[in-house]
Amino acid sequence: MKSVYGPLRSWRLGIAMGVDPICRQPKVCNYKCVYCRLGHGGIMVTERCRFVDEQSVLEEAQDLLRQNRVDAIEVRGTGEPFLAKNLAMIVKGLRDLTDAPICVVSNGSMFCRPDVQSELGSFDIVVVKLDCADRQSFLSINRPHGSINYDKMIDFMVRARRSHKGSFRVQVTAVRQNLGEMERIVDICETIRPDLVYLNTPLRGAASELTRKDLSEVAKLFSAFKVRTVFDGEQ
């Protein structure tokens, strides 16, 4: 496994360099989402740790950026990226290497922490997951660590959006289990007021959880927002 990979075509951001500040197998996260591409195993943690050497990450990034042009840097981990204690140091180093916007893809569960709140401002783009409209669905779909409170998490997502100076976006992963609550997820998005809504569904080889037609129907519910779906990246 490598902490830096790509460039690859990201359906969110175009041609992107990926940076994984966790880089562990099995994954290290505070969720065990039913749809996770990394499987249902892994290590559940809530405290921040140093998983990778930041200098090694930056050396890998420098080598890749010397040879490739990218539209963005996408920070997403084999687990929740804000669990990485040295994330701020990695981002600071990336700023010295490129002018490309830096994006973090997070589940939002750690936005209540003052250190994470201060680090959010270092990202040009924040993408936060929102798959559930209530605590019961949150427990059954995202399957979080027991210390994570759904209502508190949503409150801090709203606060983070209001304070963030860059682009703040929401990613909704649509699966069969949450289709019935999409209208209530839209209501939460209306409170958060993101700049963009990403609609995702698990892709597994040639198959996907929802079809392109299914996801286009979901997209109609989010008509008040600018929307991009995972299938748009295939066009």
Question: Could you characterize the architecture of this molecule?
Answer:
There is one protein chain. This protein is of the alpha/beta class. It has one domain (4-234): TIM Barrel (Alpha-Beta Barrel). It is built from 7 helices and 12 strands. A hairpin with a 2-residue loop joins strand 10 (203-204) and strand 11. Helix 1 packs parallel to helix 2. The longest helix is centred in the N-terminal third of the chain and has 14 residues, at 54-67. The radius of gyration is 17 Å and the shape is globular.
Secondary-structure map:
Elements: E1 4-10, E2 14-19, E3 28-29, E4 43-44, H1 54-67, E5 72-75, H2 87-95, E6 102-106, H3 114-120, E7 125-129, H4 135-141, H5 150-163, E8 167-173, H6 182-192, E9 196-200, E10 203-204, E11 207-208, H7 212-221, E12 227-229
- CATH overall fold name: TIM Barrel
Q: Helical stretch count?
A: 7
Alpha-carbon Rg, integer: 17 Å
Main beta-sheet strand count, sense and barrel state: 8 strands, mixed
